[in-house]
Design goal:
- By secondary structure, this protein is α/β, with parallel strands linked by helices.
- The protein folds into two domains: about 180 residues, 3-Layer(aba) Sandwich (Rossmann fold); about 170 residues, 3-Layer(aba) Sandwich (Rossmann fold).
- Helices cover about 40% and strands about 15% of the residues.
- It is built from 16 helices and 13 strands.
- Strands 3-2-1-4-5-6-7 form a seven-stranded parallel beta sheet.
- Helix 8 packs across helix 11, helix 9 packs across helix 14 and helix 12 crosses helix 15.
- The radius of gyration is 21 Å and the shape is globular.
- The termini are close together.
Length: about 375
Amino acid sequence: MTSTAVILDQVVAPVPGGIGRYALNLVRALTARVDGSRSLVGFVPRVSRDTVRQLEGFIPLLNGIEVSPFPRAVLARAWERGVAVPKHEVTYSPSLFAPLVEHGQHIVTIHDAVPWTHPETLTGRGARWHRAMGERACRFADIVVVPTDAVASRLSNFLSLGNRIRVIGGAPTSDLVVPVDSDNRRSALGLPDVYITFVGTLEPRKGLEQLLIALATIKGLPLVVIGPRGWGGVSVSDLVTRTGISPHRVHALGRLDDADLAAVLSASRGLVVPSIEEGFGLPVLEAMSLGVPVIHSTAEALREVAGQSAISVDVHGKDGTIKLAEALTGLDDETLRRDLASRGKARAAQFSWDVSAARLVSVFEELR
């Protein structure tokens, strides 16, 4: 039986974000597919016993969970130097937080090229660490997984990965189901009847400021902001002050569980994803799966994932916020909303965590 360590740092990270959601759903589907010839053992930095129990509940088919004696920050520095790695024949890492060394076989995931293409949208330390781990992937990874062809193309400009790249995307989570008490949930959150949504970790590259500038030119349409604070000091209240939009039009909810997220998102007039760059853009598919129209930036990965089922706007180009305001106003057209909802549902149905897991199983089989 092949012993495989599955690195689950992103699932237990303080701000899991889209990568944590990708890792949780893909590994959960993977454990339901592997045969008896492979043992999948979860591996996490030092966390509490309660966190381990929670993780065991999230992914019950793992063959145990190993806990490092080192906290996340220490382990990140150690793995950058190739020490304190788990002793398994194979490691699978759903992110660049990966124990990449000469011995053993390694599958690692690089979710985007942002540390190379837009390092200014990350902390200096974060950009340097990701680039250093990318170089380790070049040296030691047997296979590098990316979520889109767009990321594969971008990375080829910076890393010499040859024929080692495999594309395995995400999908809407099965936990994102509209609850029967959705009306009560939205009322408890103090939401208006009509609004648009923004979903994402609050970081500079997500484009929230551009969205608020565009909204400030439109009368009345409220915005619901869903997601935890990341790095960079992005504050919704500060952005509201800077852009001049009425504070009463912006409802910042922070992170929501899947039930509240589905309740809020499903009633939205539209989801707006104005990111400068993305590797996949999971909120696009999750909104589409609920029949919510989507407006997104021209980031290549977003265009790849959405296909022809959403409205693409060059948010960060010339007159970008004006064009975004026009697209937002266009959502007043009920016929357009219905068309986008129909096409979006069909598009989202083309993505499946089970299919992604099957592709990952095939990647494991390449190592035999």
